[in-house]
Structures are given as structure tokens and as C-alpha cells.
Specification:
The complex is a heterodimer of chains A (122) and B (172).
Chain A lengths: L2 E8 L4 E2 L4 E11 L2 E11 L19 E8 H7 L14 E6 L5 E9 L2 E5 L3
Parallel strand pairs in A: 1-7
Antiparallel strand pairs in A: 1-2, 3-4, 3-5, 5-6, 7-8
Chain B lengths: L7 H4 L3 H11 L32 E8 L4 E2 L4 E8 L2 E9 L11 E2 L6 E8 H7 L12 E8 L5 E9 L2 E5 L3
Parallel strand pairs in B: 1-8
Antiparallel strand pairs in B: 1-2, 1-5, 3-4, 3-6, 6-7, 8-9
């Protein structure tokens, strides 16, 4: 298995975070003016906090820089019992590299209104 | 037990007795042949926790290197105001030996409510310490996005990281 996958967990409630939009982009260029990211696709997490299809299929994996933006603000705002004033993380973004296309990159995201964690998972 | 040779990792198993010994003399601070500023490795850990309770509105950062088990000294961080994908640079800071910049990132009137991004130069940090990593590394420049909602409050931003992951949260 190669490619990219993710899993979004709501560690505040101890359950998967469903219905979160994730924007997946690839770095196309970088100059002194800044970076150019190209949006590849937007997906939404299912009831298990995962995406129905891989973020990036094995056949499409290439060495490069990638980005996942997790739109958790709406999720927290719509969640019963969450005060907007307590939402500290702000639609967090994870930028990471595929350095070996033969490997799989599982990039989980654990979140609560006031905290964020990501890591190379498995 | 030879306390002078204890590492920080073994310190956690000592419980209250170890904590009391550390408070009294600091003899349990990280030691060992691998810790040397000259070799680019983190220095022995001798800093104590800092409480900011009661201080005025400010944004402070504390960077912890969970790979070496030390504060992250000498990490470059770019603070910016963020509107969508547009960043307006505010300042660039470098963390000191205790993992904190010398000054708060923002204080008082400079602390505005809204969205911010702090870019950590994590790849450069580990490269400077001679950590062998893939090229390109999994994590290089790490964006930390957060929102100040009440500028009248004190905001502490701890960031815990390794070459393979990181956490941040609203601290105290």
C-alpha cells in the first residue's frame, strides 16, 4: 500500500469526527514571493472519521510536498455544548512530504476545540 | 541508585521522592555524554517550569523537542496574521535555551483578536542538530494555525514535536 490516507478523531468526545471537509493540495511551485498550492480535491469524512476513498491513490503517489486543511471550525461550532470562545485551533493545516512513493503515508488528525495533534501513522 | 547518572526519562519513574529531590537541588537534570552544546546536541536540561498565572494579556510560545526530551532551543518561528491563505508577517523569533522566545510573541495592544499562523522551521531545527532524516523530510516548515478570540486574555501556545509529528494546544 502506498499513497495518502487520514483519520480525524474528536479526542474531546472520544469518537470519530464525521462530516469534516478536508482540502487536499499539492505544492506546485515556490518562489521568493511565496508558495503555489494547487487544490487537488475536497473530501468529507465519513461516520468513521475516514474518507471513503484514499486521499491519494497509490498509483498517483510522487515525491513532493502535500497539504491537508481540516475544516474543523464548523464541526465544533455545530457540535452541541461547545462555546465558540473555546475554539482555539483554527482550521488546522498539515504540510508534509512524500519522500518515498513506495511507502504509505497515513496522516491522522486528533482534535479538540483547544488542541491539535498529527503524526505519521500507520 | 546513582542519581547523578539519571536521565530525564528515568526521572519520571521516581514519583514524589524524585520530584522533591529535583526541587531541592536540581541534581537530576539531564546529563550524559551525548548532551553537548558543542556537538549541536541539546544542552543538559536545567530549566524549571514557568508559571504565567496573573500576567496581563499576551501570546507566549513554548517549543518542546520530544525527540531529544528537551526544550527546543534555536528554532526559528515566523508569526503572521492570517486572512484566508494570505499571510501578513508580524515578526520572526528564535527560541532560547528554555524553548521560549526572549519576549512574548505579542502583548497588550499588539494582541488583536483574529486568526494567526506561526510557521515553525522544524526541518532546519533538526538538521542543525545532525538528526538524520529522509530528504525531503516528512515535516519541514510546520504551520500552526490558531485564533485569538478574546484579546483581553493571556494565551499560551505550547508546541510539542518530533520529526514525525506535533501537537499544539491552548496552554496556561
Amino acid at each position: 500500500m502506498a499513497g495518502i490516507s487520514t483519520h480525524v478523531l474528536d479526542t474531546d468526545r472520544g469518537r470519530p469526527a464525521a462530516g469534516i471537509r478536508i482540502d487536499f493540495s499539492v505544492l506546485e511551485g515556490e518562489t521568493s514571493e511565496g508558495e503555489t498550492w494547487r487544490l487537488v480535491k475536497s473530501v468529507v469524512t465519513n461516520a468513521d472519521g475516514r474518507t471513503d476513498q484514499p486521499i491519494l491513490a497509490p498509483s498517483e503517489a510522487k515525491v513532493g510536498q502535500y497539504q491537508l486543511v481540516f475544516h474543523v471550525d464548523d464541526y465544533f461550532r455545530d457540535r452541541p455544548g461547545t462555546a465558540e470562545a473555546d475554539i482555539f485551533i483554527d482550521n488546522p493545516v498539515v504540510r508534509f512530504a512524500i519522500f518515498d512513493p513506495a511507502q504509505h503515508y497515513h496522516v491522522p488528525m486528533l482534535c479538540a476545540p483547544g488542541s491539535f495533534t498529527t503524526y505519521r501513522g500507520s | 541508585m546513582e542519581t547523578s547518572a539519571l536521565t530525564r526519562r528515568s526521572f519520571t519513574g521516581l514519583g514524589l521522592g524524585g520530584a522533591a529531590a529535583a526541587a531541592s537541588g536540581g541534581v537530576l537534570a539531564q546529563t550524559g555524554p551525548t548532551s553537548s552544546a558543542a556537538s549541536g546536541k541539546p544542552a543538559p536540561l536545567t530549566t524549571a517550569p514557568v508559571s504565567q498565572a496573573g500576567l496581563g494579556p499576551r501570546l507566549t510560545l513554548h517549543a518542546i523537542d520530544n525527540f531529544h526530551g528537551t526544550p527546543a532551543a534555536g528554532m526559528v518561528c515566523d508569526l503572521a496574521w492570517r486572512e484566508g491563505d494570505t499571510l501578513t508577517p508580524i515578526k520572526t523569533v528564535t527560541t532560547g535555551a528554555n524553548g521560549r522566545p526572549a519576549e512574548p510573541l505579542l502583548t497588550d495592544a499588539a494582541l488583536r483578536p483574529g486568526p494567526y499562523e506561526l510557521l515553525l522551521h522544524l526541518g532546519a531545527y533538526f538538521a542543525a542538530r545532525g538528526v538524520s532524516l529522509p530528504s525531503p523530510n516528512f515535516l519541514d516548515r510546520v504551520p500552526i494555525r490558531f485564533r485569538i478570540r478574546d484579546a483581553g486574555q493571556r494565551h499560551h501556545l505550547p508546541v510539542l514535536f518530533t520529526p514525525w509529528g506535533y501537537s499544539y494546544y491552548r496552554g496556561s
